[in-house]
Please model this.
Amino acid sequence: MADLYRPLRTGLVIANLLAMAVFWLYPTAPPRLLQPANYTDVVANSHAFGSWHAGTLATAANQLAAMPSLHITWAAWSSLAGWRILAGRRWAFLVWLYPVITSVAVLATGNHYLLDVVAGAATLAVSMCIADRSQGWWTAVQAKLAVRSRPG
Model:
């Protein structure tokens, strides 16, 4: 199980670091802020739990962090983790419904443009490629160190 966890953990950290760099270098607003006449801010209107319009989140939330969509990155990461853990089970493909449903939700509520969603998925893909390759490299380094440290 640790062999499954390490690259997933590393990929999630890399994805967040990449996204934070983009948020800092290229802040973009979601459609609900740019075109309020065309989009209904569902969270603001419903006063949902965790709303960025009240409480601590009102001052801490970054309203200009739409690209890439971490909603999609995290949903796809969760699905990837489930997919890897459930490998070989015939219904395991159902885990991929989560990022699809999340995509529909964030597009319908004006939280992201389609490009933000695609960029969120691409962020995870790049991050997991880096994480999976580094895991192979790290395993090889550990094996070499183990051989060198053996007495005899």
Notes: The mean pLDDT is 83. Helices lie at 2-25, 31-34, 42-46, 56-60, 70-85, 97-108, 114-149. Residues 114-149 form the longest helix (36 residues).
